[in-house]
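pinned: reference chain
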Amino acid sequence: MRSYQPDLTPPWKRSAPVPEVPAEPDLVVEEVGSGFCGAVVRCEKTAQGPTVTLEDRFGKHRVFPMEPRGFLLEGKVVTLVRPSAGGPVRPVRTASGSLAVPGARARVARAGRIYVEGRHDAELVERVWGDDLRIEGVVVEYLEGVDDLPAIVGEFAPGPDARLGVLVDHLVPGSKESRIAAEVTGDHVLVVGHPYIDVWEAVKPSSVGIDAWPVVPKGQDWKTGVCRALGWPESTGAAWQHILSKVRSYKDLEPQLLGRVEELIDFVTVPD
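pinned: its structure tokens
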């Protein structure tokens, strides 16, 4: 019979217990040693012990041992454990990767706004960031191009309590869009953009089921050219609805768009 061996470690040297958290799919954690942050993809048994695979917002996967006190959840140390077999799996993140807030009510709209170029841009932002925007009270409106942006900004009259963020398509050096952006950017106006000709290209080709977005010759309507090259009916509205239906979360979007939208949300919600 084994004799009882008391724990003689002084109380002040003992590690405080930390919560055990089931590694449910889509739970976003940070690995303590590397700082790698990502969503849980799967858990596996290995000869060295259980492991968890995390996927970061750029689609990169890394495998980590599920060691005690090995992860941070919302900034607090936790121990990940394998989910119970047959246990309920509930989404804990919004489509943008933010922590879901069950039952949260939409906040009264802020004076600040985010403007995007067109209806498709607005629908894509709503698809991925809609929950976050309602909680933050941020309204997204769309422009019909950016040619009239200086007049629109002047009429909006942005200030410390009414910041304006603008998302522009094809914002590259030397373009018309870049010159307009430089004209209106200020302390209370932030204009950012992605490099794509149209927001369609900000959806990952793999999510849509194609190898790559076609190169459309200059002089052709880009969206119509895409439909022709892919053998789709030449209805850009129907094509967009097909593309949008394939977007389920931030993982379906290119990083060049993800970072810009989140930058705008931060800008209009953080006071001076």
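why pinned: The chain has seven helices and eleven strands. The longest helix spans residues 119-136.
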